[in-house]
Structure formats: C-alpha cells, structure tokens
Design a protein that fits this description.
Belongs to the peptidase S1C family. With 383 residues, the chain is α+β, with helices and mostly antiparallel strands. The protein folds into three domains: 64-82 and 89-163, Thrombin, subunit H; 176-278, Beta Barrel (Thrombin, subunit H); 284-377, Roll (Pdz3 Domain). It has nine helices and 20 strands.
Length: 383
C-alpha cells in the first residue's frame, strides 16, 4: 500500500511539473477553443467616380462654369460729376492747373450683367447703372459694346440694358422655385474689377425678406463668395443654368463674409419680360398697410395659427376699402395661394395684374370670410 501511494505521488508530481512547463512554453496547448470558420473575404469597395477609373480629371463644376461664363459680362459706367466753382476759360490757366472748376469729370464704376437673349438684352442690378449717362459692356470673348437702358425697376433693384452685337451667348434659365437649401451654386461676376471670377458655395436659405434692401424681397441666400463688382452677375446651379442675379452682401468689412443675396430668376423673368414689353413694371395694389401675425396676435384674434398678414390700415377709396376690407382683418389667401406673412402678401399682390377681380380670404372675428377684390395699380413712389 505504501508502495502504491509512493507511485501515485510521483505520478502527480511529474504531471504537475509537465503542466507547469507547458503553461509557460505552449499555453495554447492547454486552452480549448471552438473551431473558427472564416467568412469569405469581401472585396474592398471600388471608387464610384467613373472619372477616376477612366483616368480622367476629378469631377468638378467646370462644365457648369463653361456653360454660364460666356453669358456673364462686365459693366463699366460713367457719370457726370459737377464740381462747384466758377468756369475759367483762360487756356494758360488750364495748361498749368489742369481741368478748370466747373468742368464735368467722369466717375467710373463697375458691376456685372447677364446676357438673357441673343438679340442683346442684358439683365443687371439697377444700382449698377443708376444715374449713368454712359454704359460700356465687356463680353467674355473680349468684345466691348456701348449699351442703352431699356428700363429699370428700383423696387426689385433690376434693370435691363441692350447692346448691338452678333453671336451673343444667351444664358439658359433655370427654375429657382425648385432650389433647396444645400444645393450647390456658382456666383459669376467681376469682383473688385479683377476680371471675371467664378466662386462656389451652397444655397444657405430661401425666401429671405425684411432685410431693408428692396421694396420687394424674396432673396436666395448663399455662401458662395460675392464681393463688390459681383452685383448684377449670375448665380447658376450645378448644370450651369441661371437661378438668380447677385445683388447684395452682408458685410462689416466690404468683403465677403459668407452671406450673399441673389434675386430669384422667377422674379427676374417677370420683371425682365415686363420691361422689354412695356419699358416698365406694372404691379397690383390693394391699398392696405400690413404687419406680421405673431403667436400672441393669433391667439387674440382666435386664429388657427400665425400664418397670414394683419391689416393694420386701409387706404380710403382704395381697392381694399371698396371691397369691404377693414383694419383688424387677417388676410390668409390671395387667388388660392396661402399668405405666409406680410412680405409674402406684398409679393403676391404685386404679381397680380391691375383691374383683375381676385378672391381673397380674410379672418374677421375668428371666422373665415371670402371677399372679391378688384386689384388696383400700384402707384409710383417718389424717390
């Protein structure tokens, strides 16, 4: 028995020794792992850009720029400036002292414009050519031509001029109503007079209004760099079609801070067509003073929401007065189109042709009331 116990003890001692050695030298031998079945390898994704696979240049916006750039022009204007003083006609005085007091030197300015028809019509900003008695247009192909003013519309800061030239590259019009925030756009113009320049950005916001820039405001906001000299130039989409006319920037330094504004092409076409046809823009008018409906006012007037325009005043004898509109009414729809706010009401009314009877919806004393209003002609404002 003693011999058997001795053999057992030696066996256990040897086994423990072997286990200790293996745990240091080959620990994997002592651990149990389930067999691993490897999934078949998934090939790495192939670059989706066909231009890269085909060995072409990287995809960009060169095609859009190529389509639109020839249609954007530089505009140079000159204006007579009278200096105070008495005219001196002595040639000797003029020889030594230059221009005599009372002469009319020329003050030049510059901006941009867009060729909108092959027969020479160009759209630009009113403030680019306002007061100018000489306008020169420089085309992208190097040609220059003198332009004449066809008509202006200060209320939207648009103007139409015309040049006499052949083979003019008219731009293709896009649809600004289909723009969405985040869409890529290119701004083309002549910033600071350095020459034609293309910048890229996105649509930052739509329907910007109440900025105090124009009477009628419905701006496209973009972060595409726009600088002085870009005014009147084109804002185009990724396919090179015109979606707006660059008109203003928000800046504390005079340069681009990433907040630029363009007039939508829907407004541009309406104004342009009216100017080319009649030489001026005729707009509808109701003869009311309006303000936005705040949530507090909506609750006070028992309205379902704060959409609409509150009639704050009515011009005596005007179209609204004759139709029975009263101060305190809330206008919610014009000719079947919803009114969002006071600015929206102004734009919708201006687009109506005068002497047209239009159905409008008002809230009065918490109840919806339709009224037929004969639209009037918006009077010219003294400037």
């Amino acid at each position: 028995m003693k011999k058997i116990w001795l053999i057992f003890a030696q066996t256990v001692t040897v086994a423990l020794g072997v286990w200790a050695v293996l745990s240091v030298v080959q620990p994997d031998w002592l651990s149990y792992r389930a067999p691993v079945v490897r999934a078949p390898a998934v090939p790495a994704p192939v670059a989706s850009a066909p231009a890269v696979m085909a060995g072409k240049s990287p995809v960009g916006y060169s095609e859009a720029a190529k389509a639109a750039v020839p249609s954007v022009v530089n505009i140079y204007t000159a204006q007579s400036v009278r200096r105070p003083g008495r005219a001196i006609n002595d040639p000797l005085f003029k020889h030594f002292f230059g221009e005599r007091p009372g002469d009319a030197p020329r003050a030049s300015s510059l901006g941009s414009g867009v060729i909108v028809s092959e027969d020479g019509y160009i759209v630009t900003n009113n403030h680019v050519i306002e007061g100018a008695d000489q306008i020169e247009v420089a085309l992208a192909d190097g040609r220059t031509a003198e332009a004449r003013v066809i008509g202006t519309d200060p209320d939207t800061d648009l103007a139409v001029i015309r040049i006499e030239a052949t083979a003019l590259p008219a731009i293709r019009f896009g649809d600004s109503d289909r723009l969405q925030v985040g869409d890529v756009v290119l701004a083309i113009g002549n910033p600071f007079g350095v020459g034609q320049t293309v910048t890229m950005g996105i649509v930052s916001a739509l329907g910007r209004s109440e900025l105090g820039i124009n009477t009628f405001e419905n701006f496209i906001q973009t972060d595409a760099p726009i600088n002085p000299g870009n005014s009147g130039g084109g804002l185009v989409d990724a396919s090179g079609t015109l979606v707006g006319i660059n008109t203003a920037i928000f800046s504390r330094s005079g340069g681009s801070l990433g907040i630029g504004f363009a007039i939508p092409v829907s407004t541009v076409r309406q104004v342009m067509d009216a100017i080319i046809k009649d030489g001026a823009v005729t707009r509808g008018w109701l003869g009311v003073e309006v303000q936005d409906v705040t949530p507090e006012l909506a609750a006070s007037f028992r309205l379902p929401d704060s959409a609409g325009a509150l009639i704050a005043g009515v011009v005596r004898g005007g179209p609204a007065d004759r139709a029975g509109v009263r101060p305190g009414d809330v206008l919610t729809a014009i000719d079947g189109r919803s009114v969002k706010n006071a600015s929206d009401m102004l734009n919708l009314t201006a687009a109506l042709p005068p002497q047209k009877e239009v159905q409008m919806n008002f809230y009065r004393n918490g109840k919806l009331m339709p009224l037929a209003v004969m639209v009037g002609k918006r009077p010219k404002l003294e400037r």
